[in-house]
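Task card 7
Instruction: Convert sequence to structure tokens.
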Amino acid sequence: MSENAGQLQGKVAIVTGGSRGIGLAIAATFAREGATAVICGRRQESLDRAAKEIGPGVEAIACHVGRPEELARLVDQVTSEHGRIDILVNNAGTNVAQGHCLAIDDGQFDKMIEVNLKSAFRLTRLVAPGMCARGLGSIINIASISGLRPQFEGLMYSTTKAALIMMTKCHALELGPKGVRVNAIAPGLIQTVLSEYYWKDEARLTERLERQPIKHLGQPEEIAEIALMLASDKASYVTGQVITVDGGAMVG
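Output:
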């Protein structure tokens, strides 16, 4: 490897929910550092635009993370084309159940579990065996500070993210002896479409920022740099951790 090679030179990564927001920033950062970043999402046209925006090093494959047969096809295709998967970022998420805890119906409950939790479970089950066989791999789950404390009128978002954090720790415990590291990132308020309710309204944003020591709205790139560290060999002694990236909101 040359002195100018990136931190992920030659690595192959899958990033779910990679057409925008945090997933897009992570894919761009991985590509910058020499990885082949495969982004997936429901719409091929959105993925193609994202891949064109980032440039070389990014491939786009349409995949609905709530459908197990599409996840299997994704993993098979990437493995067939590249020989292996070194990094998995379970970033895809939804929040279709925002509202009073007693108003959530079974359909909303099931959708939140399917996308926010079961997709990470299924993809890890598909990808981790190959990592274990090679004795090397990094899995990164994008959780939330809402999984560390309850979000008002966010029962299912908090519940799924809390479960994702515990799943991270369980996978880390069992897969670590095989050389696979599993960690989570818990973002605070980041400027994405998913969180626009909290930052598009100036008064609401000001109220949020007043409660945290760092007074700016978090950006997807600030999460991506932490994901890069966890994906790289620089984090070779880090597993089972939840890294909070929230401008200090949890201590404010």
